[in-house]
Amino acid sequence: MVSKESRQEVRAKKHMRIRNRFSGTAERPRLAVFRSNKHMYAQIIDDTVGNTLVAASTLEKEIKGELEQTDTVDAAAYLGTVIAKRAIEKGIKEVVFDRGGFIYQGKIAALAEAAREAGLEF
Q1: Which residues contact 2 (CB under 8 A, 6 or more apart)?
Q2: Does this model's pTM top 0.85?
Q3: Of the candidates 30, 71, 34, which has an alpha carbon nearest to the alpha carbon of residue 52?
Q4: In 3-state terms, what secondary structure has residue 33?
Q5: d(CA 39, CA 14)
Q6: 9-51: per-residue pLDDT in tens?
Q7: Which of 4, 31, 49, 96 matches a 20 to 30 Å C-alpha distance to 118?
Q8: Pairing verdict, β 96-98 and 51-57
Q9: Alpha-carbon distance 84 to 120, whole Å?
């Protein structure tokens, strides 16, 4: 009988491989993205001290109020613009994109493209 690893285990392994390649610094922090079935979360992290500099998610009242649904590609794109605007307000222009082990398509790609269009460089 063939046993397969669960998708969650596979994603966790991918994420660790990605995290071994780069980390966020004070000059160029890491934009980490997590996607669940219902919501998306994005945060900009300085890994040298372990601080979250900026965060946004579809759970927040003002973001959730702007969206019809929190689990669509449109919601991900809106979250990308919000996180980019908050980062630019804090003086962060360049980041390293951490897709969290998720495939770069759909919601993850929409968030990344929207953040780029809103002014973040990665």
Answers
A1: none
A2: yes
A3: 30
A4: strand
A5: 21
A6: 999 999 999 999 989 999 999 999 999 999 999 999 999 999 9
A7: 49
A8: unpaired
A9: 6
| Strand pairing category for 40-46 and 51-57 | antiparallel
Amino acid in the structure at residue 5: E
Residue type, 30: R
Residue type, 110: A
Instruction: Give the amino acid at 111.
Output: L
Q: Over the range 57-86, which residues count as b (16 or more CB within 10 Å of their CB) and which as e?
A: bbeeeebeeeeeebebeebbbbbbbbbbbb
Q: Please count the residues of the chain.
A: 122
Residue holding tokens 């995290």? 19
